[in-house]
Amino acid sequence: MYSGTVYGGPGPVPSTTPHEAPQVPEVVMDSRMIAKKKRRAKEVAVTMRRNAGQVIHTISFDSILPVTADIMWDCDPELLCSYNWQSSVNGTNVIFVPGAPPKWTPPTLPYTLALDSGIMYTDHNYARQPRFPYTPMFEALSVMNPDAQLLDIDVIADRNNLRTLLEFAQGKAGTFRLNLQQIGNTLILVRSEDRYWKRSNGQGYGHNFENHFTQAEEGMQNATSQYRVIRYPMGPLNVVVRFEADAYYEGPEAEVEAFFAAEATPAAPISPVTGGAAAKPNFNYSAPIQVIRRGLPVPCAQIAELKTSPMGESVICMDQLWFGRTPHLLLGNYKKGTGIFQRVRYTSTRDKVAEWERRQQESLRRLVALLIELRRVLRAEQGPIRAAVLVREEKGGPIHIRAMEVKAPIVALHFIQRHWQPQPPVFRHVRPT
């Protein structure tokens, strides 16, 4: 948290003429903060360059011609698999399949929360399996959908990867890096960052809100949030999307209205539960993933996104809802500066997302065109592993696809043989009658 000094406080206003601009007080940043920012920038720069060779293709914003097909959420997604990571760490890598997201079980309002603290993970899959982040997904698929064929899947991606590319398709500035790999007809997008955790800045309540307003299902008390893998069409593309589910919600909407409370009602005391671990645990990356069958599948129609914001402020999360095909949004509103949650707003997202979809149609069409172009470039790669590095090195600049200097598979061979190679037909001998 910033603890530096701001110099140049209020004082006499200097006289000015019409041709003179008043002086702006100088803000001097704490030297520790400057050093921290420089170290962080260096870490990011190293990550952007790691294992990235010469440029083999460049894609500018203006070069992407949007596809003509409508890109719409017009059908229910198919749940391929789901799982939770075991949260405790004892030298093993354990997932619960199918697992379960926690159930929305709000306390009586108003309710006071402490600020988030500790270590927060942006993605447990990459934190636990940085070299093979999709392995837990395929382990869960082997249990829940062992005969699933992915030959007709065009793209496999984490929701965050698609959100990143959508921002580029919207013309927004920002730098990023993704690794790309093509298996058969399928383009796989892989996050590539220098770390997949962060220490809470002590300014939000999001994780504590999830902890206190939901309840883990039986057997899931020692589990992280659930990861779900869904399949749906994105215009002309068939996509598989993995995302983290905050909770499941059974409704009806009237129940949420009952959570509203008057400001005069005494707030419940702060609970000691915090949003994250006090220290980063040591993971055993090489330990094999153990699958424990636990939990029950939760329908896509019950998945909810949880958000928090000060009273009177809105949140921006339509792209999250759209890519995750999430039908419910529960927004906790708190009194700014107090942590006192005074109400929860429920939204059935389909209508609002449909309006966002209509306004973002050109960007969504451009995103699909970009994915089609990435698939075309990767198909031209030579060798048994078709892989490359996608980087945007300058804010507002183009995307560069660079050669991957050292290529390594991200999906184990036995998964490829099971899900990408056509299975021979089974012929049964029928005795003549």
Automatic annotation (TrEMBL):
Species per Swiss-Prot/TrEMBL record: Melanomma pulvis-pyrius CBS 109.77
Phylogenetic placement of the source organism: Eukaryota, Fungi, Dikarya, Ascomycota, Pezizomycotina
Region described as Disordered: spans on this chain: 1-22
Top-rank taxon, per record: Eukaryota
Compositional bias segments (type: Gly residues): 1-10
Entry protein name: Geranylgeranyl pyrophosphate synthetase
